[in-house]
Amino acid sequence: MSLETEINRLHWQSRRGMWELDLLLVPFIKNHYAELDQDDRKRYEDLLACEDQDLFVWLMRRELPEHPEHRIIVEKIIEYAENSDLDHFKSL
Predict the structure, then answer these.
(1) Number of domains in the chain
(2) What are its GO biological-process terms (predicted)?
(3) CA dihedral over 65, 68, 71, 73, signed as positive or negative
């Protein structure tokens, strides 16, 4: 599977229907996923299998995931969001 196909597939899986999650996950997948190494790409895909309520708590920094692999990618998503230009979020 090409990287572009993978990103397109994950883009739709990243659309969770919860505005707060969409604001973090969609720009991350569109603008940063291609820069991740294979391990982080796997972590991201595994993270998408988690429940929306867990993702919300983790990405809003109310708790950290217990699973260390989830914690690594959650921290990268948060870091990306904190350091990104807000224009990235307008393209949802």
Answers:
(1) 1
(2) succinate metabolic process
(3) negative
Q: What is the pTM of this model?
A: 0.88
Q: With contact defined as beta carbons under 8 Å apart, do 31 and 90 qualify?
A: no
Q: What would the pLDDT profile of 58-77 be if each residue is shown by its tens digit?
A: 999 999 999 999 999 999 99
Query: Residue 70's domain is classified under what CATH number?
Result: 1.10.150.250
pLDDT tens readout for residues 6-64 = 999 999 999 998 999 999 999 999 999 999 999 999 999 999 999 999 999 999 999 99
CA–CA separation, 64 and 38 (whole Å): 22
State how far the alpha carbon of 60 is from the alpha carbons of 7, 32, 38, 45, in Å. 24, 19, 25, 19
Residue-number span of the structural domain to which 44 is assigned: 3-91
| HSE (side-chain half, CA atoms, 13 Å) at 85 | 4
